[in-house]
Amino acid sequence: MERRVLLAVFLSFLVLVIYQRLVGPPPVPADQAVDVAAEPVPAPTAIVPARNAPTGGAQAPVADAQPAPVETAAGAGFEPIVSDTRVRDIVVESDFVRAVFANHGAELISWQLKQYGDDAGGQVELVPPDVAPDQAWPFSLVVPGDPQLTARLDQALFRPSSDQLRLTAESGTLVFEFEDSSGLRARKSFSFQTAPAQPYVVGFSASVTTASGPVPLTIRWGPALGGVRESTSRMVSQQLPGAVLYGRAFEDGLLEDPDVYRAQPGDLAERGTYEGQFTFAGVDNHYFAALALPGAEEARVEYHPVSTVRAEHDLVAFDLTVGAGVVDIPVFIGPKDFDIVGAVHPDLVRVIDFGWLSMLVVPLHRTLKWIYGFLGNYGWSIILLTVLINIVIFPLRHKSVVSMRKMQELQPEMKAIQARYADLKATDPGKQKMNQEVMELYRKHGANPASGCLPMLLTMPILFAFYRLLSMAIEMRGAPFMFWITDLSVHDPFYVTPVIMGASMVVQQRLQPSAADPTQQKIMMLMPVMFTFMFLWAPAGLVIYWLTSNIIGVGQTLITNRLAGPARVRQVRPPAERKVKSAAAVKTIDVDPVEPTEAGPVPTSGQAREGGKRGRQTKGDRRPRGKGTRGDA
C-alpha cells in the first residue's frame, strides 16, 4: 500500500510537470525568426521622425528634432492649428512606475515597474521594444471604416499639457491635444493615481471630432506583453503572453454565464474575437498583465498574434471597442499581485491562473503573505507555514505510524494465511475465504491498511498546491532566502537543498515501519533517488517546503516509535507443523484413562494407542471402559 501511494505521488507530480511543460506555446523556430525579420516593411505613407522606445532603466533622451509640420498623403494640405513643434517624449514618474509617452500619436512607448527587476539587472519593461516598425503602440486610436483618418491620428504631433509629470502625494493628469485646419480635433487624457492600491492603473479617455461631428473610436493595444524572464526553473513552464478576458461572452447568440477565457497566440486563428460584457479584457503572461476594464457596457475585443523582430516568443495585440465607440476606460498595467489586483477590482484576481487547486492555493497564499508580514523573508515564511501544516496533520500522521506498526506485526500471520491458499488460482472461489480471513485478522487486532496511507494522500494536494503557488505567485519572483538562494522561484543554483532533501527522504523511509518484503523495500529506496533528480530543477521554495516537511516527519516518527515502544514480533508456526500437532492432540484425547486392575499396571498413552490399534485389528481383545471389566463382574 505504501509503495503504491509513493509511486502515485511521484507519477502524479511528474504528470503535473509534463502537463505544464506541454501546454505552454512552443517558441517560434529560428528559421521563422529569420523570415519575420527579413520581411520587407512597407514604406509609410507619412514623412515622420522615427520613434525609439527607451530601454533599460536609464533616462529616455528627449528627441531634439527641428520643428516641422506633419505632412501626410491622407491629410495633405491641412495645416496644424494645435500641435507640438517637435517630436519629443514625456516622462511620467512615480515611486512605482516610470512611463514614457511620445507626442507623436500620443501613445505609450515605455512602462517600467520600479519594484521588479529583469534578468539584465534593470527594471521590468512591459512595452516590448523589439517589435516590427509597422506595429502600433499602446493607446493608439482606430476609426472604424476610415483608415485615412486613423493614419492622420497616428501621425499627428499632439501638444502635451506638461513637459514631464512627477507624481508624489497627489494624482496627476497628462493631456494631449491636436487640431488642424480640416476641423479634425483629437484629445487624449491619461490620469494617474498615487494611492497604494492604484499605482498601476491609468484612467484613459479620448475623443475625436471632425467637421461632421464626433466619430466612434476603438482602442488599439500594440504587441504585449513584456517582462518574460529568461532564467526560470526548468520544472516550471513559464506562461508566455496570451489573451485573457473575464465576463459574459456571446456564444451562438446567447449571453453565457461569467467565465474566464484564455487563448494562446496559436489558438487565435481558430477564434480571436469575443463580444459581450467583460469585467476585464487584455493580455497577460506569467507575472504581469495589461488589462482594460470595460465595465457593464457591451464590448468587442479582437485579438491577433504578433511576432517580435527577434522572434523569441509570440506576442498578442488586441483592439477594444466599447459601446458606441466612446473611450473612457481604466486600464491596469502591472503585476499579478493578489492584493494589488484585488484592490483594483474584486474579479480581477481571476487573472491569476492557480488552476484547479485554487480553492487550496488561495488560503495558502494569504497565510504565507500574513506570515511574511511578521518575518519579512519568504524562505522563513515557507518554513513556518510548513511547520503549521504539519502540526495540523500531526494526529493523522501519528495514527498512520501506529497503523503501519500494527501491519508490520501482523505480517507473519498474513503470510501464513496467504501460504495456505497459495495453490489456488486467482479465479478460485476459495480465494474469497482467504480475503475473509485477512479481514478478520485486521478486525481482531484493530488494524486498518488504509490509515497508513491517509496522511500521505492528504499531503499530495498540499504539495501540488505549493507547487502551483510557488510557480505562479509574483511574490516569489526574485524573493531571496539566504546564502546562495537569491530567488525562490528558480532552482537552487548549486543543487544543495535537493540533495539534502533526498537524504531526508531516505532517513524517513528507513524509520517508518514497513510490511513490504526485502525486495520491495529495495525498490522503494529508489523513490528518494527519483524525487531528488526531479527536484534538482524545482523552484527553491518548493524544495524548502518538502525538505522541512521531511525533517518534521523524521522527528515525529522518532517520537511515535519511542512512545509505542519496540514492535512485537509474532511467531507463526508453519501450516504443516500445526496440522501434525493438532492431529496428535486429537488422538490423545480419544483414549480414556484406565485404572489399575489385576491384569497389570495402567498402560501409558503410547501403549493405549497401540492397544487401540490392536483392538481395532482383533475385536475380542478390546479392553472395556470403566472401573472394572464385565467378565470380572
How would you characterize this protein structure?
The chain has helices spanning 2-23, 30-38, 147-155, 338-344, 358-375, 378-392, 394-409, 411-420, 430-445, 454-472, 496-511, 518-524, 526-535, 540-564, 575-589, 605-617, and strands at 46-47, 71-72, 80-82, 89-93, 97-102, 107-117, 123-125, 140-142, 159-160, 164-166, 172-180, 185-192, 201-210, 213-214, 218-224, 242-251, 254-255, 259-263, 273-284, 288-292, 298-307, 314-322, 327-335. The strands form 3 sheets. It has a 16-stranded antiparallel β-sheet that branches. The model is unreliable at 23-74 and 593-633 (pLDDT under 50). It folds into 2 domains: 41-353, Beta-galactosidase, Chain A, domain 5 (Distorted Sandwich), CATH 2.70.98.90; 359-564, no CATH class. By secondary structure, it is an alpha+beta fold. A hairpin with a 2-residue loop joins strand 13 (201-210) and strand 14. The longest helix has 25 residues, at 540-564. The protein has 16 helices and 23 strands.
Supply the key terms.
single chain, 633 residues, alpha+beta, Beta-galactosidase, Chain A, domain 5, 2 domains, 16-stranded antiparallel sheet, 5-stranded mixed sheet, 16 helices, 23 strands, elongated, disordered C terminus
Brief synopsis:
The protein is an alpha+beta fold and 633 residues long.
Percent of residues in β-strands: 15-25%
Rg (CA only): 39 Å
Distance from first to last alpha carbon = 72 Å
Q: What low-confidence regions span 5 or more consecutive residues with pLDDT below 50?
A: 23-74, 593-633
The overall number of domains is 2
Mean pLDDT: 77
CATH class of the largest domain: Mainly Beta
CATH architecture assignment of the largest domain = Distorted Sandwich
Secondary-structure-derived class: alpha+beta
